[in-house]
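ugh ok fine here u go
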Amino acid sequence: MRTVPRGRGVPLVVLVVAVSALIASLVWVVGADTWRPGPWAMTGAVSREGPVRDFSDAEQAAQRFADRWNLRVGEVMRFSDGYYAQLLDSRGRGATEVLIDPGGGTVHREFGPAMMWNTAYGMMARPVETGSRTIEPGRAVRIADQWLGEHRPGLRAAEPTAFPGYYTLHTLRGDRITGMLSVNSSTGQVWYHTWHGEFLGTSEHPPTPLTP
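structure:
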């Protein structure tokens, strides 16, 4: 058995353990509503000079990020903790989701489903998406409504936007948007987006509608 020289193998072991712990922590929180992202999240960020003052600034910043994949910006939303934007492909289908920091204009893939469930642009992306979508849009709404009834009484789910590997749905109180959640299109797991803060407004460019 080969012995690793003392003092040389330890940093590698520590690194492997740390990465494993990070991945495990992300997997365990799927469906939970208490997770908050940390500064360690490496999501392929791009920056711009100056703050993001309005929806126009947020859309321009998001488009610079989208250009790397030949995508375009769809709906942009403003929350108390920053801006959110959907990125669409050339056919108007959901590709991925990003967050825009209003202070410095940094743009990165959204935490949670966009990183962990997205089969085309996420951390687990595959060259070609395999398998069929097992959960249809209508069922995704029912799953989301059931989850909300158990964890966020008084809220309901709006129509879903499909992304590779999952759906994202706005949450509503009456007709007012309060936030959003995602439903995994293969497993039905629910991931509530706890990192946005209070919903403040939207400047929407509607994606291709889905028929439940």
